[in-house]
Amino acid sequence: MNATRTVAAASMVAFATQVVFALLMLRLFTPEEVGDFSVISQVAFLWMTLALAQAPLTLLADHNVPAHIGAQHAWRASLVRYAGLLPIAALSLWLSQLTLWPTLLWAALLAFCQIGWMLAQSFTLRMGNHWQQASVRVLPPLVAALTALCMTLLQNTEGWTAPTLVLSALLGYAIGAAWLAPVLQAPPTAKFKSAEAHTHAHSAPSDSRSTSLRMAHTLVDATLATAVVVVWQRLYGAEDTGWMMALLRVLGFLPAVVHMAWAQVALAQGDSQQAHVRGWHNPWRLGLAAFGCVIGLGLSCALALSQEWLDLRWQGVWPYIAPLVLWQGCACLSAAFSHRPFQTQTTRHYSWACMGLGVVQAFVLLLPMGWDLPIDATQHIATFALTSSVGLLGLTVWMARLR
Questions:
Q1: CA–CA separation, 25 vs 33, rounded Å?
Q2: How far apart are CA 380 and CA 378, in angstroms?
Q3: Are 374 and 312 in contact (CB under 8 A)?
Q4: Vertex 301, ends 298 and 305: CA angle to 5°?
Q5: Which of 177, 300, 326, 337 maximizes the CB count within 10 A of its CB?
Q6: Burial category of 322 from C-beta neighbours within 10 Å (exposed 0-12, middle 13-18, buried 19 and up)
Q7: What pTM, to 2 d.p., does this model score?
Q8: What is the spatial distance between Cα 78 and Cα 52, in angstroms, rounded to a whole number?
């Protein structure tokens, strides 16, 4: 469990840094600025996620392929998909009604660096030491937060203007991607091969999905995540988008912590028995504890608003707190069991179930646009979050029953 503790500690530090970054956005930037940045970063996320096609998970799960070779293959394949997805990214930015240039350039740079960072995290989880596993997760958000603070102070004192949020995020992702450079330059060595030889082949998880199925699963997930931002920007404007995304940026990191510190470690270690240990390493207890943390963050946000610690322009966050807490809390439960399909060779069923849920979520999200329903942002987010939560709970129960 040393790897779990290391990654968990690093993820919590990274999470605290993300909270600081979010507070900087709330304190130093307007809702419109946060909303525009959210659209650009979400399009970059869509681009990156589709280009990877879940390659980081495959790199963790396929222990019959040396990690060094797997990382090189995943990088090359991802870059090919990255180039082919340029029209989709451009279309997404156009639909959001943002100026296509230079937002497309910023999205392209963000996506490129994120691809390298995601692969670097998976590679270090399999082959790196504890210091490397922690650093690759902590340094990028820390650099981004410090850069945003310094650039904001520079703007206030010197009058120099620049896209602060985009540049700070880009520098952070570039630091993370740099960890993959030695892997891509050096040929496989005996050190890597011998380390892989210690893996217990009979208990190692695997990813039996085809590339097309992984790509389809990724397409549904990434398109839905991007559609939430784009639809909100189009229906309710940049201010509402900033309110929602600033809160979602904080709450949404907790499911990611559970996935990185528990599910990914289980896959990297190739130990199918890890899912059945007792105590706080039980998936249900981990998921519920994370759910409790999400509730605590939501209450903290409510307290900050009620005490007027934030600018009055952020009072619009109130209607989003309860729905997003419920949605992201259920996402924590699902993340705690997300390694089970890989350990039980049911990844194909898992992908189809996730895609089915994504289609239902997309239907609820797009319903006001297609039928011109008289619904405001508060009702829309409540309906969407409730639908998502019920679906995630059903997925969690199914994964928990896998043996």
A1: 9
A2: 5
A3: no
A4: 140
A5: 337
A6: middle
A7: 0.74
A8: 5
Task: Say if CB 114 and CB 79 are below 8 A apart.
Answer: no
d(CA 23, CA 171) in angstroms, rounded, equals: 19
Which amino acid does the sequence have at 389? S
Please spell the DSSP secondary structure of 294-317, one letter per residue: HHHHHHHHHHHHHTT-S-GGGGGG
What was the pLDDT predicted at 159? 58
Q: What share of the chain is helix, strand, coil (3-state, %, to 5)?
A: 85, 0, 15
Helix or strand run (H / E) with residue 58: helix 55-61
DSSP secondary structure string for all residues of 317-342:
GHHHHHHHHHHHHHHHHHHHTTTHHH
CB-count exposure of residue 289 (10 Å: 0-12, 13-18, 19+): middle
Contact 216, 222 (CB under 8 A): no
CB-CB contact of 3 with 131 (8 Å): no
Unique residue bearing structure tokens 């968990």: 8
Across the chain, how many H-helices and E-strands are there? Answer: 18, 0
Q: What is the pLDDT of residues 144-171, one digit of tens each?
A: 888 888 887 777 666 566 788 899 999 9
Tokens of 339: 């390694």
> What is the 8-class DSSP label of residue 344?
T
SS3 (DSSP) at 130: helix
Per-residue pLDDT, averaged over 317-340, amounts to 96
For residue 34, count CB atoms less than 10 angstroms from its CB and return exposed for 0-12, middle for 13-18, buried for 19 or more: buried
Ordered DSSP codes for 128-193: S-HHHHHHHHHHHHHHHHHHHHHHHHHHHHH-----HHHHHHHHHHHHHHGGGHHHHHSPP-HHHH
